[in-house]
Amino acid sequence: MAPKFPGAGTFVPESDDLRVLADAARSCRGCDLWEPAENTVFGAGTPSARMMLIGEQPGDQEDRRAQPFVGPAGALLNRALAQADIDRELTYVTNAVKHFTFTRSDRGPRRIHKKPLRSEVVACHPWLEAEIRAVDPSVVVLLGATAAQAMLGTSFRIGVDRGRVLELGEARAVATAHPSAVLRAPDDERDAAFDALVADLRVAASLLE
Q: Residue 16 sits in a domain of what CATH number?
């Protein structure tokens, strides 16, 4: 018997055209996350960007608007990129998982972020591989543990290797904290967490010089 959710590989077309890939992703049934989500949130940005930024998954606002990094974490990322002298308009941003993973609040309709399962990250990985092939970036920024482990293996630890230059196929990679982790930091630690994110982004930017 075929598995109920075969993974995204069944749905990924043989194309390096991001528009074709994004259109196909809207019909993906590779895992069960498509059912409660409102939209498939594919990557966005410059098709031939030299820098690709990969996060974990879309959030509530991203799911509603079908665009990556347009919520509070996206706003913080924009500010960090600006301080690192990186033009977001010249990058490509995406996520390891293309659907919002959430639970419902007991006190109302609010949707609360839930970390995707490893099986869900693996199921969605063919889309991420297709995006990397299509964009062919020279530098990849991995935002958070889920993105880093999706690309570098489950043994990777952000706290140990963040900010270092790593090899990722033909590209070089830099892992750092996810912007949402900066937002969740205690008030007295948030400025330092933001500065650390900017410092890591500057390392990535230096690789483009």
A: 3.40.470.10
pLDDT in tens, 33-47: 888 889 999 999 999
Other CB atoms within a 10 A radius of the CB of residue 106 amount to 7
Q: Is residue 3 assigned to a domain?
A: no
Q: Whole-prediction pTM value?
A: 0.94
| Concatenated DSSP letters of 59-121 | -HHHHHHT-SS-SHHHHHHHHHHHHTT--GGGEEEEESSSS--EEE-TTSS-EEE-PPPHHHH
d(CA 199, CA 209): 16
Within the chain, what is the greatest distance between any pair of CA atoms?
54
Q: Is there a domain that residue 2 lies in?
A: no
Residue 128, phi then psi, degrees to nearest 5: -65, -40
Torsion angle in degrees (nearest 10) through CA of 201, 173, 95, 28: 160
